[in-house]
Amino acid sequence: MHNKIPTKYYFINKLDTNIINKQDKSTAFIYRNYSKQINIDTIIKIKRICKLRKSKFFLSNDIKLANQLKLDGAYIPAFNHDKKHLSYNVQKNFILIGSAHNYKEIKIKEKQRVSAIFLSSIFKHNKNYLGINKFKLLSSLTKKKSLPLGVFRKKTKKN
């Protein structure tokens, strides 16, 4: 049902070619904008940019639209417990990824048949902070690929 699952993701909420082009070629992009109505033209533009870069592109919380637009896949956030997408016929190599913050949500994502699960932030940036030890523990409770949410930055020298 899926092809190679990316290991690096970047969440975007608007079309910004500068941000997209600054990411490395192996980075997949997830369009996640819950504050505005979905603009299909924007999604198509991002899809074209990602295709030129040979980067994967996912749409958050709208599996049906992601499939119709022939995106690489869709992202199911932790708050989405719906399983109606299981009745859809999806394109070959369509990847479903999800996020979870605890064991109960991991089990929901497994029932939603995601290929990989983002686990809550391993760094202390939000209320769902896990830390490395809890991340390892939750990762061991699923056979799905577990991905940490968090920001990794290269340290740069200051002059």
**By helix and strand content, what is the structural category?**
alpha/beta
Give a short account of the largest sheet.
7 strands, parallel
Number of strands: 7
Oligomeric category: single chain
Portion of residues within helices: 25-40%
Radius of gyration: 16 Å
Q: What is the 3D shape? A: globular
Strand content: 15-25%
How is this structure best described in words?
The mean pLDDT is 84. This protein is globular. The protein is an alpha/beta fold and 159 residues long. The protein has a seven-stranded parallel β-sheet with strand order 1-2-3-4-5-6-7. Strand 1 (8-12), helix 1 and strand 2 (27-31) form a beta-alpha-beta unit. The protein is built from five helices and seven strands; from the N terminus they run βαβαβαββαβαβ.
